[in-house]
Structures are given as structure tokens and as C-alpha cells.
What does this fold into?
Amino acid sequence: MAAPPRPESIALLDRLMAALEAKGIVTEAEVAARQASTDKASPETGARMVAKAWTDPAYRALLLSDGKAAAEQMGVSMAGAPPLGVLENTPGRHHLVVCTLCSCYPRAVLGYPPNWYKSFAYRSRAVREPRQVLAEWGLNLPDSVEVRVVDSTADYRWMVLPMRPAGTEGWDEARLAGLVTRDAMVGVAVPVAG
Amino acid sequence: MPDDTPIPAIHDLGGAARFHCTPVEHDEVPPDAFGKKVDALRQILAQKGLMTVDELRRGIESIPESEYFALGYYERWLRSITLLMVEKGQVDRELLP
It folds into this structure.
């Protein structure tokens, strides 16, 4: 598990905040307000986008061609965010997203990146032995399925459009969205019905 | 035969052999108050035109190896943000660890 910040880091943050506040650059209230708005972003947004793409062909086409525009159609502000590419899983191809250099992640639609996504092990291994990493997490893909790993960067973010599970015929968007986990949109899992 | 493949920089972990036998731990603990505050501060400084994502990364990637792996994720961010604010003359150099 991630270790808590050391006391000297907490003290450094306090000193930096005080110095920036003294210069009139930021206030504690501004930081708190920004934190509160960041806290609101969650994978539920991405899940709604996926569910809509499963039921609305026009939205699916938009999502696959311009993820940012598709997110904005859901009411998410993507101002200043890098482009969002969305990759479609198919019976023959599975996508896995990693950021080998740091932790680049489509935060506006998935929220804060989880600690494992930022871990040295994931960053290192996802590109070298993706099938092994997925298998360790309980996702065993047959050899007939190609695994394509994509590297999110500071300038381009990726998310996965998983396949709609069998047995969900007739489900509405809200019910479908309930099946779509953050892990499925990163590619370390696939949605299952029931 | 000389191997002239450059040694990857510290942050360039894709395929790095040192973690091949390390399982990916299912760590779902959300960011703590410290991390969220550092994150919010970074966003505000970026919005005010005082730093960019590329500058943040350069600051993180310049952390010496021994500290890079010892510091937590948002501790590395804080180190980089502090460095950038010092470099830009916004805060005193004495702030740097």
C-alpha cells in the first residue's frame, strides 16, 4: 500500500502554501474549492459514456472519433484537457491502458488514478507481459485475442470502450452503466452481466 | 560487442526488469488529504500560467534515483512544484529540502 506522506513533506507543503499565500498567488480557500471540484470526477461519468455508446450508434461513433467531444456531451468540462482517445474492444482484440512514464489518466471521466495504476510494477510490466498481469488479476484472455497495450501520455489520454456483455439485451442505459467499472475502462477487467 | 543502448531515465519504467517479479498490488486506497491538496495546488498554479504539465514532469524526472523510489507519488509532485516555484522566483530557495 502507498505509504503516508512523511512529516517533512507535510511541513514542506505548509511552507510552500504559506509562501505562495504571502505573495498573493493562491489562498487556502482556492485550493480547498479546487479539491472539492476534483473530488466530484468519478468513473461513473466514463460508465455513462460507455453505456450510451452501447445503445446509441451515433454517440458510439462520436466517442470513437472524438472522446473529448463525447465527454463534453455528457456535461463534463474538458477545457484544457489533452485529447481523449477511446479504443474499442472486439472479440478479437483487447486493449490495456498504462502510463509507463508517470500516471497520465483521463481524470475528467474516470476520477483520480488508482494507486496501482501509478505503481512501478504496473508501469513496468503492463507493456512487457500484459497477459500475465491480467491473468494475475483474474482476466484470462485466450490466445486468439490480440492484446494491444497503449501508453497514455501528458499529451494524449486513452480509455477503453469494453464490449457489451451478453445477456443485457433490452437493458436501459442506467442499468448498463452499472456494469461498467473503472477497471473495464482501463482494460484490466471486462464487464459481466449479473 | 559494446552495448550502446542508452540506460533509460529513472522515470522510464516501461519494461524495466527490476519490477518483473513484483505483483501489481490491488491498491484501491484513495488519495489522502496531502495528495489531494498537492493535486489541487498544481491545478491552480497551472491555471494561473505559473507551471505546465511538462514542467511538472521535468521536475519529477530530475529527482535523484534514491529519492525517486523512496518518495510517495504526491511527494514527488510537491518536490517538483516547489522546485519550479523557486526557479521562477515565486518563493525563496530556502524552501527546497
DSSP finds four helices and no strands in chain B.
